[in-house]
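Quick one: PucR family transcriptional regulator ligand-binding domain-containing protein from Paenibacillus artemisiicola, structure tokens please.
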Amino acid sequence: MTVRDVLARPAFRHAYLAAGRAGLGRPVRWVHIIEVIRFDQLLQGGEMILTTGAAFKNDTAAFLTYLDQLVRCEAACLCIEMGHHVSSVPDEWLREAEAVGLPVIVFPRSVRFIDITQDIHAYRINQHHRALQELEKTSRAFHRMTLASQGVGRVLELLRDSARASVIYVPQDGPPKFVPPVPEREAEAWLGFLADWRSRASAVGGRSGESNDAEGPAVAEHAGRSVVIQPVGAMGKTWAHLLLALGRKPQEYEFLILDSASLSIAQDLLRTRYVEERRLYSETLWVDDLLHLRLRDEEQVKLLAGGAYRQLNELAYRVVVIEFGDGSAPASGFADDGTESAGIHLSLAVRTVFEGQTFHPLMTLKNGRLVVIAFDKAPKRPVKERLRQALGALGQLKAAGDARLSAGVGRQGRGLLQAHVSYQEALQALSLAPILRRDPVFFDEIGVFHLLFHIADKGVLDSFVRTYLGPILDHDEAKGSDLLRTLKVYLDCDGSKRLAAERLFIVRQSLYYRLEKIEELLGADYMEPEKRLALQAGIRAFQLLRPDAPL
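--- reply ---
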């Protein structure tokens, strides 16, 4: 509803437009009566203001203050009733209103403001109800098109007709679509506008080409038109952008209809990707054989990897082993319709997330663990940070009630036939997640555990632990004390009593008492370099032997 529409209502049959004809197209969101001189905190924009002039009477300075607030609050128009407070509207007032384009409507006789508010509000509510009905009808049509696989083109045409605006669809891996069609030069200008917008948004930490699909629409200006930009995507990645170019300020209906269209397009794209993922999922089942050394012949690997073999064999990679929750199959967090379907859903989600961080993933799912060979396509960018971001995004895709995932990451490798090395390292790193209490665990950050893993005889480890930590362990078991943890924290803090007390959440006097007891049990030389190193290695060996110990 615009100011022009308001003037056609019966309640305005005796009113006339005194100034601001250029603003007749302004939308009217609501009606508000204001009889105070200060009100800029009361308006949200788009209100039609009714007044008897009690706030400014015949005072020009007061009126200009009143008018300035209306302009700053983006009010739709001002309606003044002639009567007790204002008998006429001075030409100076009208010139000022004309200069800012604010419509001024004059009631030459007394009117009932309640009749105006009831009429306009009823009209707006009915209009909103009709818009919701139209939105529901259009959304159903979008949904039917998606189910009937009628393609994105039909959705875009219906969006154009429903919103009465130009529609631009820009996928990341295909040609753009303009509805209605535009000349080539204009199309290039629109694509340049979108690229500039994405670049600016990325620079300020906002949306980017890899943006999260949860982000809502943005509004920008281009070629004198308001443009609503809606990301289209799912599973943490944007697959396209949908633009609605309007010759007016966008209203709630445009945002809702655009959101409905983007969801329908996303469903269509997701179905297409699901079909492709089913093919890829079947083709990469050989990855499990590769990692477990059941596949050793290079020619056979070439055949199974296909045309991608040469590139993959030259790229650096890291193997990532992911365990969900309690180690059960991750299907519960992604799908409930069978093992294969769940695996495909998970594979699609993981592929989307890892590709978003410029990795090429080869995957296999077995025994509740997902294994990803992540080939690095951007070696100049920090690989660990990108892997952390990918795993964090994957964790967010899990159902809200599921436990968080754990992940182990092997060292960098090259050559597909050597992938089993990084895989074994990733498994060892994953086994340390509950001990080190961090996720993900990178194998090249596990320190002395790297050596301890190679001591196959657990009796040797146990003997080493007893040699250096036996008195502490016996005392803790007999007295229920916490000396082993105290020793670990104290050594990890490089002998800083202040830091150790803070990490143990005890006062320094308590720490001093514990350290005296440790010295009594281990000897006064326990902080000497050789013995200190042996104690730290012994504590790690103890953690490896008893991962459930509360350290």
